[in-house]
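Need tokens for this chain, all 348 residues.
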Amino acid sequence: MAGVELKNIKKSYDTRHNVIDDINASIKDKEFVVIVGASGCGKSTILRMIAGLEDITGGEILIEDKVVNNLHPKDRDIAFVFQNYALYPHMSVYDNMAFGLKMRKYKKSEIKQKVEEAAEILGLKSLLNRKPKQLSGGQRQRVALGRAIVRNPKVFLMDEPLSNLDANLRVKMRSEIKKLHKKLETTFIYVTHDQTEALTMGDRIMVLDKGKIQQFDTPENIYAHPENKFVAGFLGQMNFINSEVNDDGVEINGCKILLDENIMRRLDGMHEVIIGIRPEAMNGNEYYISVTPEITELTGSNKNIYFKLNGVDCQTIVPAETEVDTDFSIGIDTKDLYFFDSFSGESL
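Here are the structure tokens for all 348 residues:
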């Protein structure tokens, strides 16, 4: 069982500040886990520590229930797919994929079998004699994946492997990587800053901010039940509106929103609260609020409309055929509202 366990993992470069601060996580065998966060949050550092490319300052990393802190990267039985492909330009596709096996002294017949099997899975059989410069970006990324597959590792580590591809190719490669995961039935740990990749690819998502786990859960739970304002805003977007709490509700743009007793109990003792609502949820029929559109963007089948609520920039998404005049009404249902502590940002 090639699960990965992170126990109290810390990383510091100056002995004073931890860039990774007490990370605890259990990644199951054959699971596809996505680590997501903004640039500089520590997600690639975690991946490199699992690979053995970066020393850890404290804690333990276990692969298949074995502590690997002091194991050399080549002895951890992992495969790392980098952002920049890292292919040898003077070698053919076949030789690029076979290189690691040759270094490990595999027999020629075994290398040929493994490379051809990987090429079949990735649709590269007709390209084995080409050099990297003769390939498209998507083909090069598949070669990098193939080089990892031939190793038959216990764990695949992928560090933003699609970030150098154009938008359409990223969508195609997302699908290919998910199919690959199902075929290989191996543990995948995938790092990205792209919220769409995280939500569409992961069995579970680890959301990082400033070296700390903010939430580690299924995409469905993270989207529907974010544990704090950061998670709510980072995955799936959300409008955040500052509002005062009164005796029986809150106010948005002069419209009084009445809240039921259960919600009011959660807001008990608060004078201010942050209200969260997703752009696609502003089509309810409980409360109608008139807003003044500031910018309208056509995105194909939809329009993004930008306006202010309680003085804060917000947006909604409507069908492209919707007429947008100087006065525009949004609809809000209380069931679509989220509430966050105005000081800590924690979900209420």
